[in-house]
Amino acid sequence: MSGRVLVRVLVLVALCLGPASSAGAQGAAEIVAHPSELTYGSLDFELPEADGFRHELAGGVPAYLVPDRSLPLVDITVRFRIGSWLEPVEQAGLASLTGELMRTGGAGELEAKAFDEAVEAVAGNFSAFIGSTSAGMSMNCLTTVLDECLDLFFSMLTEPRFDGDRLDLAKENELESLKQRNDDPVDVAGREGQWLLYGRDHVESRFVTAASLDAVGRDDLVAFHRRYVHPGHMVVAAAGDFDGDELATKLSALLGRFEEEGRDRAPWPPEAAAYEPAPGVYVAQQDIPQGRVQIGHRTFQREDWGHPDHFALSMMDGVLGNGGFTTRLMKRIRSDEGLAYGAYSNFRIGSYWPSNLSITFQSKSETVAFAAKIALEEVDRLRTELVPEDELQTVKAAAIETFPSNFESAEALASIFAQDEFLGRPHDYWRTYRAKVEAVTPADVRRVAERHLLPDRLVMLIVGDWETIEPGDADGRATMAEIAAKIGGGVTMLPERDPVSLETVSQ
Asked: Within a domain: residue 376?
């Protein structure tokens, strides 16, 4: 290194260290004793007006188009108010196969392989799904090939080919998946738990079988698409490098490619069968060293987004188990007792029908009863005691401080505003969100817990080895007999089910 270069380096180092050292000495007296004493300035965040991005496309289709010129990319998602609740019960899987084959089964004049190659040629990324209560088709591409990608995307939306070979392959893959669905206790708990809470006739508890797959043919996919995938059920969200008015014009023109003949207007909101769960302890026997546990009950359906208990219930759930390592379930079951890697709660309010509370954990067989005892104690505590102000403030602060991250990108903005339209949620919900969270008091939490946490309606499902789980732990801290007595309804052993047919296996 030359002398001149060395001098320059030393000067730069001195310039960097001088102010830092001075600032360090000056700030030493300001160092707090504990991180909990740190204070931060308020985070100012102003939510953009949704109406500024709303466009009405041909036929009245709502679209939220949020320009973002930072990268030469465009993301477009089309949501449809359709789902598997529209399929015949004996053809469970029809809706999901329709969504899958819209993407993989070719479109327009292009067979499946040719369509895939055409999308790859323009570096596009397309996807499609149809779930239980909504469907979504998305595309992502460079701005320079937007017109080409839109042409391919609307071919997928309006003219899917549903190639027979790809349908056969999709059904074969699904059948192989069915054969494995008893292998994971989480999957077993999900299935049996849905049946216990929603019954067999509810769309939330409808599962594909070999027979229902076999009953689905290509003509059924064509008919389902023709009846339900059309602009009358559509909400559009787009973000990226475009002019909003120009993109709206292009989308309106492309909507004309949907055929009008054969359309059917799906009922909205979705319809579902009523069911009253029977409280009790239910056991799905599996010879595994741990027990997978779900405890819960049905909740309620919101009539609108102004339900007076909405925000208090959200904070209650955050205190109980829906908030990471600071929640009561996590602290007591994991941190204090070491009974599980995690313990969680989720209190859901239904948008279309009454939803459910779910408390979940997985513990070694001998300590399942003790972990369940703790979970039930925490439910009772919320119903009978006031949450300390500092504990509630931690939950509220988490909700308020992470709020801006929901809108951190143009894509997120478009998606949330479109979801508002889809659900009928007013955009003002977000403008008042932080104030309504901040307004929740300990008395509010106890009030909603007493009203909506219902110990006499609890359904407890255990997937595990009952012989090992039933006696409880060697220290005598809890037995399943005690848990069953507290919940009521007794203990019911669920039958073993064939994974493909879901029929009871002969004992």
From this structure: yes
